[in-house]
Every structure is written in C-alpha cells, then in structure tokens.
Amino acid sequence: MGLRYCIRVIVLIALFLHATVLHAAEVASCTFDTFSAPAGYSFTQIEGISDDGTVVGQLVENQTQHWMAFSRSAGGVMTMHAAPGSSSTWLYGRNGVGDNTGFYQDKIHPERVHGFILQGAKFTFIDHPRAANTWLFAMNQLGVAVGSYSASASVIKGFMLLNGEYTTIGVPEAQVTYALGINDNSDVIGTYASGPVSNGFLWNGGNFTTINYPNSKYGTVLAAINNSGVIVGNHLSKNKDSGFIYENSVFKDIVYPDAQYATVGGINNNGVISGQIYLLGSTTLGYTAICK
After folding, report:
1. CATH number for the domain that contains residue 72
2. Which residues of 52-84 are buried (b: 16+ CB within 10 A; e: fewer)?
3. Count of domains in the chain?
C-alpha cells in the first residue's frame, strides 16, 4: 500500500493553524524528460531526485506483484534494491552525496516497517526506540534525517534524527504527522491530519506553518524542499494526486500534455523535479523536468 494512499485514507483536517498560506495556482512552464519502467515492471511511485539527477522510487513486478525499490541514474541505468528480510522495499529520498533513504516491510508476523539508509549496497537500519514502525523519508547533506514513527496504534508522529538523537515533530492536535523532506537549512516539510483532509506544513526550530493548495478537496502533501526553499508536493482531488511547485508564496501546477495528471516526488538543489505521469488507460511514465 503506497504512502499517499495511506495518507488519503487515515487523515486529516487540523483544528488549528499557527499560520496558513493560501494562494491561487498558476501553470508551470516545464521541459520534461520521460522514462519508462523496465520490461515486466510498472512504476508505483517516483520519489526523490539527487543533485546528480539520480531518481529513486518503487516498482512492482507485474507477474508476482512484488514491490521493490529502484534508483535510476541520469544516464538511464536502473538498479533494483531489496532490503534483507523484506517483503516490500521503498526508496523515498536521495541527498546530494548519494545517500538513499527509505523503509521496508519485514516478513515476520505481525509485519513491521523499518527505516534504513542505503549507501552503495550497504543498508543501515533505523528503528525508533519507542515505536513498532519507522519510516525514514529524507536526509540532508549534513546527515540530518527525517521520518515518522507509530507513537501508538492510532497516532503517527514525525521525527528529526541527528547523531542518534531523535527530536519529535508532531503538529499539536494532529493524529498523524509525516515529516517527508528536509534541506540543509533544517527546513522540514510534510503533511499532517486529524480527519479526512490532509494539510501541508513547513517546520523549523519548533515552529509550524501550514501551506495548503487552494480549494483541494482532500488536501495537500508537501513532498520535498531544496536548499533554495522551493517546495514541491501534491494536492488530492477527484481521486487523483496532482503535482505542484510552491515558490515565493505562489503555487504552480505541473501539467504534462495529454496526460490525465502528473505527480511530483522530489526536487534537487539545481531545481530539477522528479515525478510520475499518468496517461490515459493504465500507462505511467517517470519524468524529470525543469519548470519555470
């Protein structure tokens, strides 16, 4: 089950806002480079992109329906990744020095989710000391990571991890907080909820700012932030997730010609974004793009 589906099902509206940002959206002018899944596989989610243009995400093997992680270099070389002892593996982020962040579901009943850092072929596993499940989403180039953990059966909180020390990131009164991205300025973005509508947030030094795409039926998920403070995310409307860029208090939609919609997974420090295009029928493509 994908993260965005889980977010849509389990959450949200916040009953309070420390600060709310709401502006009309424009359409971004984008130049796309697209790519297809390997033969026999389909993309489930396209996520982060590093400064060298490597894209990470998840694939499903069409015959077995087995989920595995992938990384794809700017030159088009696709590498599959599966954590030891996993039934499913996800890659969500990749920083500028090539550290991948993600999580996997184990095969032991009841199944648990564990975070990890993947450097080359080496997995370093991350489990929050007070949680059954840990999701590791992103790490900046200074080694500060963010993720979320199951604080109880019904509550999920975010965290920041540095040198083995956890700092909780939890929007007050929210049932669920996902900390999904971080830049080198320790600006953290993500989504929170206490009902059926999600809200995007920006967090720094304990202060939350809510950032919501205007008039979105099911809310906003902020996916990534680069060192220039440019944020990308998705708004949830009409049973689909549509991508946007948020910069200088302006939302710009990501629109691919003749597609049903396009989602956004990441943005690097060169301003290149990554994501997924949903064409008519069931065909999907990955993409990288420069947008203005």
Report:
1. 2.120.10.30
2. ebbbbbbbbeeeeeebbbbbbeeeeebeebebe
3. 1
Residue ranges of the chain with per-residue pLDDT less than 50: 1-23
Task: Measure the CA–CA gap between 10 and 33, rounded to whole angstroms.
Answer: 34
Amino acid in position 114: H
Strand partners, 41: 61
Which is nearest to 191 in space by CA: 13, 2, 1? 13
Return the percent helix, strand and coil in the chain, to nearest 5.
5, 55, 40
Count of CB atoms situated within 10 Å of the CB of 265? 27
Cα–Cα distance measured from residue 199 to residue 193, given in angstroms and rounded to the nearest whole number: 6
Range of the domain at 22: 3-291
For residues 224 and 46, is the Cβ–Cβ distance under 8 A?
no
pTM for the model stands at 0.90
List CB contacts of 110: < 8 A, sequence separation 6 or more: none
State residue 10 phi and psi, 5-degree precision.
-95, -5
Instruction: List pLDDT tens digits, range 133-161.
Output: 999 999 999 999 999 999 898 999 999 99
CA distance 145 to 180: 10
Cα radius of gyration rounded to whole Å, the chain: 17
